[in-house]
Amino acid sequence: MIEIKGLRKTYRSRGREVRAVDGVDLTVGEGDVYGVLGQSGAGKSTLLRCVNMLERPDAGTITVGGVDLTALNRKGLRLARHGIGMIHQHFALLSSRTVAGNIAFALEVTGVPRSARKERVAELIELVGLGGRADAYPAQLSGGQKQRVGIARALAARPQVLLSDEATSALDPETTDSILRLLQDLNQRLGLTILLITHEMDVVKKICHSAAVMRDGAFVESGPVAELLHRPGSTLARGLFPLSAPATLPGRTVVDVTVSGPDADTALTGLARNFDISLLEGSVETLAATRAGRWRIALPEDGTAAVEFLRARGAQVEAAA
User: What is the tens place of the pLDDT at every residue in 239-264?
Assistant: First the structure.
């Protein structure tokens, strides 16, 4: 659904060049929820703005739904953007318009007739859980309600792709969870492809099927979350399941174990029944796409047999660090 190859974007700042996006390749499959994770300044927002060509890249191609956006003229790009919705961190609502008016605005600019706008707006208000709030103004809404308006507006033109620019970072944890549940529901009900950027590991944990970790304009690692969990030294795995217990114990071999899928809930109990181990730290959780667990375990000094037992069950085992 989204295919990016060799993307580069450079700015000039204080007389020097700053490479905000540095040779990024990215593939987001149809119906996928893909998270790009990184700290401020990593290049995430620039990447997202390039996807719908709010920023024109210096090099590379961006293909959405089989259409190369970088090859389009202004009119073609305007039409192509109808298939790409965008939600923003700070909502970007029109204060002088009601909930219904804000949603209708997205339909007005695409030339939808007034009669059709009214029906579509009513449908979207119910879809995002804002029934009874059609006549409210943004100043009368909570942060979560404002973001629901933003999501409804982004969906107005029935896009295939939804881009999310730190959509939950201005919200409290409970409201964040409700918005993530809404996005997950929209992904499943509408078959939406969602590309989101975030600096919050919990966002990736709760709804992303695939993810990339971005640093200094480039991807450090990328791929399906379940695969990244099993990659030795994975930044994502360590962020999703941080471990702080001692990495060494006298007379013991201390390892970090990551497992996902059907064996996530049984690998540890099976290990404990067969070997003399000590669980130092860890947990099993439900990620968006799978069950997964990560533990720090003290094995016997010669832990070869225990490691083989774990690996036979698809676990990634590496020396604790």
Answer: 999 999 999 999 999 999 999 988 89
* pLDDT per position as a tens digit, 42-53: 999 999 999 999
Rounded CA gap, 95 and 99, in Å? 10
- The secondary structure element, H or E, covering residue 143 is helix 143-155
Cβ count near 308 (within 10 Å): 10
Residue count (the chain): 321
* Amino acid 298: pLDDT: 97
Can you give the residue ranges of every domain in the chain?
Answer: 2-229, 241-319
Low-confidence residues in the chain, pLDDT < 70: none
Q: Which residues pair with 294 in a beta bridge?
A: 258, 283
Retrieve residue 90's tokens: 């700070």
CATH class given for the domain over 241-319: alpha beta
Q: Identify whether the C-beta of residue 203 lies closer than 8 Å to the C-beta of residue 196.
A: yes
First to last CA, the chain: 38
Q: Which CATH number fits domain 2-229: 3.90.950.20, 3.40.50.150, 3.40.50.300, 1.10.10.10?
A: 3.40.50.300
Contact (Cβ atoms closer than 8 angstroms) between residue 21 and residue 47: yes
DSSP 261: G
